[in-house]
Amino acid sequence: MTDVAPAEFGTTPAGEPVAVFTLTNAHGLAVRVTTYGGIVVSLSAPDRHGRLASVVLGHNTLEEYVRDSSYFGAIVGRCANRIANARFTVDGKTYRLAANARPNHLHGGRHGFDRVVWRAAPFRTDLAAGVALRYTSPDGEEGYPGNLDVRVTYTLTDRNELVVDFVATTDKATPVNLTQHSYFNLAGEGAGDVLGHQLWINADQMTPVDEQLIPTGAVAPVAGGPFDFRSLTGIGVRIAAGDEQLRRGRGYDHNFVLNRGEAEMTHAARVVEPISGRTLDVHTTEPGLQFYSGNHLDHSGLCLETQHYPDSPNQPGFPSTLLRPGAEYRSRTVFTFGVTG
Description:
Blueprint: E1 3-11, E2 17-24, E3 30-34, E4 40-46, E5 52-54, H1 62-67, E6 74-76, E7 82-83, E8 87-90, E9 93-96, E10 105-106, E11 119-124, E12 128-137, E13 148-157, E14 161-170, E15 174-175, E16 179-181, E17 198-201, E18 203-207, E19 220-221, E20 233-234, H2 244-249, E21 253-258, E22 266-272, E23 278-284, E24 288-292, E25 303-307, E26 322-323, E27 329-339
Antiparallel strand pairs: 1-2, 2-3, 3-4, 4-5, 6-16, 7-10, 8-9, 11-12, 12-13, 13-14, 14-27, 15-26, 17-20, 17-22, 18-19, 18-21, 21-24, 22-23, 23-27, 24-25
């Protein structure tokens, strides 16, 4: 049966208490979520022999998360990914953001949603357990306009799904682009690199970047090149190819334009780890998927960040991230865990 259990996780340097909630389901999956940054601290999943291991990178203590800048498992926002020159213009007014990836803005700034303590409300039903998190980002935080009310709900189901739902409203026009930033290693945390993981991405196109990893505004086909993951391909097979985009990212750190049909949810990606047999399928309402192969990490993991395209506030040709008063931002991503035979 599903269950949710709270516990203390520590206190921030500002004296705010932080809790951690353990969600479990009938098949042995267990997800730990902390109110600091909405972080998925661990996610234990069985391999083909039923052996459990955490398949996300994380830390054991709150202090380590406070010191770290890798966004392990966190909710990132208001805008995930990069915004060029740390500024954008809305209705003729230019807003300047924190330039925490100089000269650009990255993942919401120096004190983004990964650095705040969220209010939490756990819940349980016969088929699911979860925790609903809430945070109000004040007008001007990190340079963004408007008071933004954000709700994030993590739900673990008996179908081995971790469902992540975002809802946001604002009282001033502001860009919003939220994502969940877990690093996955389906062999188990600390069990070697992810280059042998096989990856499928449902995308015919990607958005090339400049030397600062800002999209050029172009949309390029993936066919025949190192970004073609339209069939299951080992991550390490072409990561060292003599490709300018791979050189700029020091590996994969690029947005893929998802092939979207008429359905609200798109099957965006699939990952298979051949030795353990663990699999991960990602479905989302978002138009893009940022595949990051963990190029700057001391540990091995990969990110599949469902989101709008990087630098969307400055790219009129990209799907808009602008949220206006009276409208509602909604986004859903489902991570489904399984095994191969």
